[in-house]
Amino acid sequence: MLVRHTNQTMEKTHSAEMCGYSSSEKSNLIRDMRAHTSDKLHSCELCGYCCSRRSHLVKHMRIHTGEKPHSCEVCGYSCSVKSNLVKHMKTHTGEKPHSCEVCKYSCSEKSALVKHRRTHTGEKLHSCELCRYSCYEKSTLVRHMRTHTGEKPHSCEVCGYSFTTKSNLVTHMRIHTGEKPHSCKVCGYSCSRKSHLVTHMRTHTGEKPYSCEVCRHSCSEKSDLLKHIRTHTGEKPHSCEVCSYSCSEKSDLLKHIRTHTGEKPHSCEVCGFSCSERSTVVSHMRTHTGEKPYSCTVCEYSCSHKSSLVIHMKKHN
User: Fold this and answer.
1) Which residue from 79, 229, 238, 310 has the least number of CB within 10 angstroms?
2) Can you tell me the distance from the alpha carbon of 274 to that of 265, in angstroms, rounded to the nearest whole number?
3) Is residue 163 part of a domain?
4) pLDDT of 249 over the 50 cut
């Protein structure tokens, strides 16, 4: 009877002089030699990519064809490489076989653990050649370099707006789709960005983490603190290109510019009255509704405009 031996038991008669690799099969030795000689017999007809193994070329072609033969039986996720499916399945099983020896961190991928360890060692292998910036991950350095090159490789197919990172594009797309995945458990408020939800939650907690070093003013948003600080410094960073007007807030500049352009974007739905500021059209609507929200504390007088109440109060004084 003919007995077929495995590679473990068969004599390894084929060996490579360059690295010492040996194998019982000549085909394995040929593949190993290609790694040393750069003998890449298989090439892509579409982009010029070449490799030493046909199986590598088959995987590469999926970039062009979009083929994703490996799919998840749980959620329908599919990919072009089997190893990616193996990684994906851990999101369902919750398996995290790789643990940090210093803290309680654990993860599903060994590469993620290697990156995590650098947070303890402070090791930053990747540094920018243009400035002093350094980081733990190469992908982070790639994104940083775009601050120098101005490259924005991720573009919106709807409006053409482009971004430096894919995550920013994903967030931007919610403007078009209307998707608001982040919601408040207290009042039902929802938004497209997690940072907006964090800020919103302060309306419930009353938290005001940003404080002025000059006075006791505190606020829930950093942007509000920056605006407040200008009341102390007198800084007016927003300037009109037509005249010498300048102001501390961009919204005030936009209103001012309308005095030059004559633009009146706010209009009354009843009579067609239009104006440059929303507050003006709100006041105008009271001429139709008869609403008089401003009342005198001395007599029964009430009016629709605050300025009218100020004039009235002078009669009592």
Assistant:
1) 310
2) 7
3) no
4) yes
- The answer to whether the beta carbons of residues 160 and 154 sit under 8 Å apart is no
Domain containing 291 equals 236-317
Q: What is the pLDDT of residue 4?
A: 41
Last residue of a domain, one of 36, 57, 79: 79
Specify the pLDDT at position 151: 92
Alpha-carbon gap, residue 153 to 269, rounded angstroms = 43
User: What are the tokens at 33?
Assistant: 């030699």
Residue 117 makes CB contacts below 8 A (sequence gap 6+) with 100, 102
Select from 180, 204, 206 the least CA-distant residue to 194. 180
SS3 track for the chain: CCCCCCCCCCCCCEECCCCCCEECCHHHHHHHHHHHHCCCCEECCCCCCEECCHHHHHHHHHHHHCCCCEECCCCCCEECCHHHHHHHHHHHHCCCCEECCCCCCEECCHHHHHHHHHHHHCCCCEECCCCCCEECCHHHHHHHHHHHHCCCCEECCCCCCEECCHHHHHHHHHHHHCCCCEECCCCCCEECCHHHHHHHHHHHHCCCCEECCCCCCEECCHHHHHHHHHHHHCCCCEECCCCCCEECCHHHHHHHHHHHHCCCCEECCCCCCEECCHHHHHHHHHHHHCCCCEECCCCCCEECCHHHHHHHHHHHC
Residues 74-114 have pLDDT tens digits of: 888 889 888 888 888 888 888 888 899 999 899 888 888 88
Residue with structure tokens 């510019």?
257
Number of independent structural domains in the chain: 2
Of 50, 79, 108, the position where a domain reaches its end is: 79
We report the CATH number of the domain holding residue 263 as 3.30.160.60
Q: Is residue 66 part of a domain?
A: yes
Read off the pLDDT of residues 253-267 as tens digits, 9 standing for 90 and up.
Answer: 998 999 999 999 889
